[in-house]
TrEMBL record:
InterPro entries in the cross-refs: Snf7_fam
Gene Ontology annotations of biological process type: late endosome to vacuole transport via multivesicular body sorting pathway; vesicle budding from membrane
Domain of life: Eukaryota
Name of the gene this protein is made from: LOC123179786
Protein name, UniProt field: Charged multivesicular body protein 5
An example Gene Ontology CC term for this record: multivesicular body
Length: 146
C-alpha cells in the first residue's frame, strides 16, 4: 500500500512545495511510520480544507465589497439625477396648483347644488296619480294619431 504522503509530495501544486521535502519518507520506513501516515494525511486534509474555506470567505467578502461599490455608484447617480429634477420643481408651484384645484372643486360643488335645487315642487306628490295621468295622456295622444 502506497503512503498518501508520497503521492501528495509528488504533486506539482505550489501548496505542497514547502511540505514536499518534509513529507518524503526516508528509505528506512518503519511500520510505526506507516501507521501514522493516515493520521498525518487527515491532518493535512483538514488544514487544506480550512485554507480553502478561508479563501472562499475572502472571495465572498471581496464580492460583497464590489457589490457595495456598485450600489454606492448607482445611489450617487440616482441622487445626482434627483437633485437635477428637484431644481425644476418648486413647492410654491405645487401649493398654488393645489389651491387652484380646491377652488375649482368648490365652484363645481356650487354648480351641482344650484342644478339640484327644488323648484317649489311639493314633497307630498302622489306618484301613482302622476303615472296614471301620464298613461292617460299617452293613450289620448295615441288615439289622435290614429
Amino acid at each position: 500500500m502506497k503512503c498518501p504522503q508520497r503521492a501528495a509530495a509528488t504533486s506539482s501544486s505550489p501548496l505542497f512545495a514547502v511540505a514536499r521535502r518534509s513529507m518524503l519518507p526516508s528509505t528506512n520506513v518503519t511500520s510505526q511510520h506507516l501507521k501514522g501516515c493516515p493520521r498525518r494525511y487527515e491532518g493535512q486534509r483538514d488544514i487544506l480544507s480550512n485554507q480553502t474555506y478561508n479563501l472562499d470567505q475572502l472571495a465572498f467578502a471581496s464580492d460583497r465589497i464590489k457589490d457595495a461599490q456598485h450600489t454606492m455608484t448607482a445611489m450617487k447617480a440616482a441622487n445626482t439625477e434627483l437633485k437635477g429634477m428637484m431644481k425644476t420643481v418648486r413647492i410654491e408651484d405645487i401649493d398654488s396648483m393645489q389651491d387652484e384645484t380646491m377652488d375649482v372643486m368648490d365652484v363645481s360643488s356650487e354648480i351641482q347644488e344650484t342644478l339640484g335645487r327644488n323648484y317649489n315642487v311639493p314633497d307630498d306628490i302622489d306618484e301613482e296619480g302622476l303615472i296614471c295621468s301620464w298613461l292617460f295622456l299617452d293613450d289620448s295622444n295615441t288615439r289622435r294619431m290614429n
